[in-house]
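Side project, low priority. Logging it here so it doesn't get lost.
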Amino acid sequence: MREWKGSVAFITGGGQGIGLGIARSLAKRGVRLALTDINEAALTSGKEELSRLTDVEIFRLDVRDRTGYASIADRAESKLGPVDLLFNNAGIAPSSSVPTLNYEKWDLTLDINLHGVVNGLQTFLPRMIERGEGGYVVNTASGAGLVAGPNVLYTTSKFAVVGLSESLKLAVSEYGIDVSVLCPAYVDTNILENTKSVGAGQSIALPEDVREETEAYFKSGVNIDDVGEMVVAGMEARATWIYTDGFIRRFLEMRMNSLLESVPAPAPEEVA
């Protein structure tokens, strides 16, 4: 069983949604929290709630801002101590038909969903390695990072996060750092509304004709507090992949079967 009390966690997107659920689970275990988000009202509310349980510092951060990231990391560690738990959780759920794709939509999606993770890793991994005391990284991807759907923007960004996480787990184990990737299905968050608000003039929100139905799926999904506990349990088990339910299983089976069936049969000399 991991000793949580005394650890310091840095959580992007920590003022709301899955990030807040993770923060609540860690706060109950005595972990000190550095919460970042672009929503200052959510951060203020989160600090008011969680400060009753543990030390909390909040910072407005756009994960695309590398300079700001490094500055906030310094401030967080000066107030709370060295960060040994990193949660690269901030993300958006963009959508675009192929005919309306453009470079701006690609840049916005990859800058937040992928480069935001890279920025967190590049900020904190060197510090963890230099201290030599290990650590833990949890990157939030999606079931869409394991099984492709027709939403190429979102799928591309999340497949990248899954691959990054799997590779990173192998690469940093020698430093006592472990890595998990969270692959949620539907979770009751406001991610669709949040995505719309950061569009920066780009139409990346779901079309209105499917938005209402998709929002209903999210609302019927797992609540964020349960996800927070799932993440903690996954970390205790040092799981590579953490799921929020079994929704993805049959799609994974279909994908794995298709992959295996596409591999050429071994030549006789390979069998021998």
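Brief comment: The chain has eleven helices and seven strands.
Revisit when time allows.
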